[in-house]
Amino acid sequence: MAQGTVQVTHTGTSRWRRRTGEYASLAAALEAAGDGDVLTVAPGTYRENLVVQRAVTLRGPEGSPGSVRIAPVDGVPLTVRASAVVQDLHVEGQDAAAPAVLVESGTPELVDLRIMTRSAAGIEVRGGARPTVRRCTVDNPAGIGIAVVDGGGGVFEECEVVAAGQSGVAVRGGAHPRLERCRVHHTSGAGLSATGENSALEAVGCEVYEVRGSGVQVTGRGTAHLTDCDVHRTTADGITLDTDAVLTLADCRIHDIPENAVDLRSRSVLTLTRTTVRQFGRNGLSVWDPGTRVDANQCEIFDSTGDYPAVWVSDGATVVLEACRVHDVPDALFVLDRGSRADVVDSDLTQVRNTAVSVSDGATAQLDDCRIRDAATGAWFRDHGSGGTLSGCTVDGTQTGVIVTKGADPTIERCTVTSPSEAGFYVSAGGRGSFLNCRVTDSGGYGFHVIDGCRATLRKCRTERCSRGGYEFADGGPGAPGGGAAIVEDCTSDESAGLRPVVAHEAAVQPSTQSGGLLGAIPGQRTTEQEPLAAAPEPQEPARTSTAVLGELDALVGLESVKREVRALTDMIEVGRRRQQAGLKAASVRRHLVFTGSPGTGKTTVARLYGEILASLGVLEKGHLVEVSRVDLVGEHIGSTAIRTQEAFDRARGGVLFIDEAYALSPEDSGRDFGREAIDTLVKLMEDHREAVVVIVAGYTAEMERFLSVNPGVASRFSRTITFGDYGPEELLRIVEQQAEDHEYRLSPGTAEALLKYFTEIPKGATFGNGRTARQTFEAMVERHAGRVAQLAEPSTEDLTLLYPEDLPELP
Description:
Number of strands: 66
Radius of gyration: 33 Å
Strand content: 25-35%
Largest sheet: 37 strands, parallel
Helix content: 10-25%
Structural class: alpha/beta
């Protein structure tokens, strides 16, 4: 029974309505009321399950907030199915299978409700309901704070989730609410979460903090748009995006995050504008997987509290930074893995303790008109296949301006390095690179330092006031017998450090009759005046034989069926070539391939080796690999897609065009999608230039089967499909063993068995990374090993190298 009475005030004029009266229960009053009536509830506790089905006003007495408690023993305390007004009530629920307040239809207004409950959800909005919820408070330590599901929507203004046992605000099933000036805190799940196709969350002026999990989580093709919001003090990543998620952040602040401030995976897309990211324990931006992309404009990333790069781009992801600032971090930008790319325009990378820009494992970085200042190393292109361009950049106050090593081959043009303590540009260990119109001033060492016989190219460069000399070419210098192979043209120096200045005619280029690529006067040499040295033509780097490349393929862990397929295809091409040489007819072999399988199974690596094999057999001119995905091919308006596709095809001319996640060009709900234009252009180019480029399309097995079935024109261009199976536990163990050997670690007795058990038990869902997972496991072991060994006063060599079972991370 109710404690207190209910007064119903009749405001209408219809004579058939019941007159004003008092009722012993809320249910009776609601039954008696008609549209437009006002129900004023007397103070007390009501053990009723209320259902509001008419457009009435249900409210507590004025001046006594919280004096009316709706607290049934079980079920839903308050259900709203009409465009009613509910105000000044205190709602309590105890049913873990039901929400405390359920809005099922209409456009009701919920105002000044205090919901203290242990229910499935504090407030749940579903179906066609579009409520306006103002100044409501939810305290639900057992479940979700606010759930908007199954197409629901509405506006939440100045609401607060003070506690939640799961997500603070959860959006799913195609729902699309808007939050304005709301606060969500002390949750045991994500602060804000949106998941599922067509699910969309919009938040303006909101704050998310004190969250045991991610502050904002968008997954499974969900979308979210946050403006002027704060996300801080989480226990996990600040913002997490996974599986085709889309998020836009404008004028937001993400800070005090112990893990990654923002983590994106699996084709997610993030757009940031005028947003700050600071005080993060791991990466400020952590971006993984092909098709995953970040576009940041006028953003600031700074004040790292950990020892990780501020921006991490790997596994084929793309990051674009425009007019951004990254400062006070251990490392600013790390780009690694083939297909990964970073484009940085008009941005500042300053106060970097280690390396401002690191490019490795075949990745690409493009920096235009950027400023790098106060870093140990300005930019480091680390290994074979890694490259990109620095154009119009300034590097000031570093130890070394730009380092190029181990076969990396960037283009550096119109860049200035000022006051490096060691060298302006340093090329070693087989590094290459083209340096055009570059300048080094006030170096504490050399301006340009090229050793190990590296094949760098310097044109129209200038050095001034370099303490040890403008140019240093070790191993005898360019053109010396057995010496380096650098090409130097039209370069000048003031020959500082006590050396006689070079006059204009001494710094002149070689006469026009001399062939290009020969070394003219070398300015800045630490010798007396010398005559121009004539260098031999640049030697060509010998291409590997198909046998050598196949040997590298055989050395890869696992992939036995893939190796057989590639060998069979290679044998057919080789025999066909020999038959032609003998004047016999050769069977026509289509060289285009389809690669199917999960991420991390070696598809890109095998594509690179396949191109090199075809080049060694004379089938392709160069054999290089150009990796693209939908974002590289599909434009934003009619005609632009054909141009992008043509440009990608031209870059791959003489080599392999590798299209990862090719099925994204033909989505199931394509409609007017421009991906079809890319497919049509590609099919025509493959036909018109069938001998110039080999095309490989790749992706998940099921999706690629669908892609080929709905595009017979594409399917007809490919000779065969090669399936890349997931790695088994034993193969993952072998990858870790290889990683350990490469990095001079050893597995202690029992560690291999522990790893085998770990890889057997690790969840292998859709996002399982195969080889990437093995690599991440090794990296986690090294990190835990470092934390353990750092506590030893004088560790032995064995302490420094042995990895033990306790170094394994926890299972996810």
